[in-house]
Amino acid sequence: MEKLIRYVLEIRIFPTSYPTNQAELQLFRVMQNASLLLYYDTLLEMGGDDVQQLCDAGEEEFLEIMSLVGMASKPLHVRRLQKSLQEWVTNPVKFKIPLVPGEDF
Q1: I want to staple 14 with a disulfide (CB 3.0 to 4.6 A). Which of 6, 18, 36, 46 is the partner?
Q2: In Å, what is the CA distance from 58 to each residue of 14, 32, 37, 64?
Q3: C-alpha to C-alpha distances, 39 to 13, 27, 101, nearest whole angstrom
């Protein structure tokens, strides 16, 4: 599987799986928008590739998901993800932009 390299301010590198379908692309873009790609692979591994499911989750379920992916201990990361999900709800087209021009799932 192809890997994208994600650089963060601390100059750490996070290999990230390349999205293989529209659902994964939307999740990738939501996480990228929140600068949280380091959680992307973990969400995929746990079956969290449905952005709508994340949006529809109640507070308790959402926090349980955040705990499963290791984000619950970083409340500002959780907040950034919530803001990115809200943006996805209001402007979903922004999150469908292909990583490579001309790519279509």
Answers
A1: 6
A2: 29, 23, 23, 10
A3: 13, 10, 25
Q: Give, in degrees to the nearest 5, the angle at Cα 12 between 10 and 86.
A: 80
Query: Among 56, 2, 57, which residue's Cα sits nearest to residue 24?
Result: 2
Domain that holds residue 42: 27-95
The neighbouring-strand residues paired with 7 are: 13
Number of domains forming the structure of the chain: 1
Domain contains 9: no
Query: Rounded distance, CA 85 to CA 54, Å?
Result: 8
Structural domain includes residue 104: no
Distances (CA, A) of 17 to 6, 70, 74: 10, 18, 23
Q: Give Cα 88 to chain centroid, integer Å.
A: 11
pLDDT in tens, 35-87: 999 999 999 999 999 999 999 999 999 999 999 999 999 999 999 999 999 99
